[in-house]
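We treat protein structure as text, and this decision shapes the records that our systems exchange. Such a record has a labelled line for the sequence and another for the backbone structure tokens. The record that follows is passed on verbatim for readers who wish to inspect the format:
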Amino acid sequence: MSASPKPPPFDPADPLGIDDLLEPEDLAIRDTVRAWTRDRVLPHIAEWYESGELPVVRELARELGALGALGMSLEGYGCAGASAVQYGLACLELEAADSGIRSLVSVQGSLAMYAIHRYGSEEQRREWLPGMAAGELIGCFGLTEPDHGSDPGSMRTYARRDGDDWVLNGRKMWITNGSVAQVAVVWAQTDGGVRGFVVPTGAPGFSAPEIKHKWSLRASVTSELVLDDVRLPADAVLPGVTGLRGPLGCLSHARYGIVWGSMGAARSSFETALAYAGSREQFGRPIGGFQLTQAKLADMAVELHKGILLAHHLGRRMDAGTLRAEQISFGKLNNVREAIEICRTARTILGANGISLEYPVMRHATNLESVLTYEGTVEMHQLVLGKALTGLDAFR
């Protein structure tokens, strides 16, 4: 009998050997995005977060476009045509830098571009997608309203016909990229059901006042969208879908990126706590040598890498065309909750230093409070899974 192969050394950065599941191209994309965030985001992110601004958003968008990170998993029109796993790895690296940076990419690619790519006309795709893929044009996605978040079917934004034109009136709230966008995908009630509209942000009657005084996602542009008699031509409507399945389909695509991205915030916090535990001394020894600290680190590592495995599994299913919306809810619910817990535990290891912007932990924790809520609250995803498990609808 031949001898069994010797296992490789234990790697604290990859304790389960998940990298063995990745192809060389997957690793190359991951490492490229990681290097970009190291050079372009990490040296400045604490300052941007503290000031509550993302002053170089247009510059970053163009650089992300050059990387192929915008509309990354879409085909054609200048998009990279990457796999779902590759897109997920990019989201993980972006959110390891900051959730706001990943949100910029997710809203651009998985919401605005995806809506045009999936439901738009060929003319709309050709007009908007190449510029958006290059980062020359920034997009936003208008669904949530001031009084209607989890219940988009009750939206009040309305589009009426006036001859051959459409006239839109309404308000949208908590819109990432809103005040820097050149194009907005806006969902509105019509006499024939919910429809999506491609709205140039320079149209008369359109405005996007920026939302200030946020304590989360501070390095991200967040706006209200105001539509006062915005007149659009007939061909502004997305022809490929009617009803809520349009915007909900876009949200599923974006939620998938959150499954991966949240693990990036968790990884950054875990790595910070691990390094700190090895250098911080109390009672004459590194705190990483105490049993209670090791228990925390072990639990954090288990949940982090379980979450990455879950994201990888869902990515393979998306690439195979077998991923269901309920499974995305499973991933979003689990991974964001566990990411927040990892950040909170990491903060305890850092002690008082954990609240300082000299370390990323509290920034990630506060960002994840928004990630927990947007694109489906905990309660909504629990009810999605509850309905799938029982066959009974408890939403109302």
Notes: The chain has a mean pLDDT of 95. The chain has three domains: 18-133, 139-236, 245-390.
